[in-house]
């Protein structure tokens, strides 16, 4: 294991979990968006994580977001015949975003982010102690 592997791994996880939190924020911001440029309601976005087991030319070991996908759950149908986006039966297609699920995902992403931040802080302390030993 190289000297900075732990930092590279923790750093890649920090980046991936920050992107996940950004997607959660985007999902929550669009919880009531019934019309997008593509037509139809907003669709929940989720990250697909992939591990990097070996260091490559493109990056170090750790985790990365392989792609961002739209959740394939159907939209939430609400009867609102007066709504401008209502269909001929009076139903409006709302995004497939569940606020409780998004908040749960946000807590998981935040905890993972904090855990990796603790790895970085621990590595800093260890290296600081090693430098102090070498100085004396």
UniProtKB/TrEMBL annotation:
Organism domain of life: Bacteria
Record has Mitochondrion as a keyword: no
Cellular component, GO, one term: bacterial-type flagellum basal body, rod
One Pfam match: Flg_bbr_C
Record keywords: Bacterial flagellum, Cell projection, Cilium, Flagellum
Main location: other
Keyword Transferase applies: no
Subcellular location: Bacterial flagellum basal body
Residue ranges constituting the Flagellar basal-body/hook protein C-terminal domain according to the UniProt record: 89-132
BP-aspect Gene Ontology terms: bacterial-type flagellum-dependent swarming motility
InterPro entries: Flg_bb/hook_C_dom (IPR010930), FlgC (IPR006299)
Subunit structure: The basal body constitutes a major portion of the flagellar organelle and consists of four rings (L,P,S, and M) mounted on a central rod. The rod consists of about 26 subunits of FlgG in the distal portion, and FlgB, FlgC and FlgF are thought to build up the proximal portion of the rod with about 6 subunits each.
Family: Belongs to the flagella basal body rod proteins family.
Name of the protein in its database record: Flagellar basal-body rod protein FlgC
């Amino acid at each position: 294991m190289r000297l900075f592997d732990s930092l590279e791994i923790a750093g890649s996880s920090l980046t991936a979990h920050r992107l996940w939190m950004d997607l959660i924020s985007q999902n929550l911001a669009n919880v009531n968006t019934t019309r997008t440029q593509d037509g139809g309601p907003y669709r929940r976005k989720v990250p697909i994580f992939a591990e990097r087991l070996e260091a490559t030319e493109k990056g170090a070991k750790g985790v990365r977001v392989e792609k961002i996908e739209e959740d394939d759950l159907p939209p939430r149908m609400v009867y609102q015949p007066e709504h401008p986006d209502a269909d001929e039966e009076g139903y409006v297609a709302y995004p497939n975003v569940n606020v409780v699920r998004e908040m749960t995902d946000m807590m998981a992403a935040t905890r993972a982010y904090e855990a990796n931040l603790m790895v970085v802080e621990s590595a800093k302390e260890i290296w600081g102690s090693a430098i102090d030993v070498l100085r004396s």
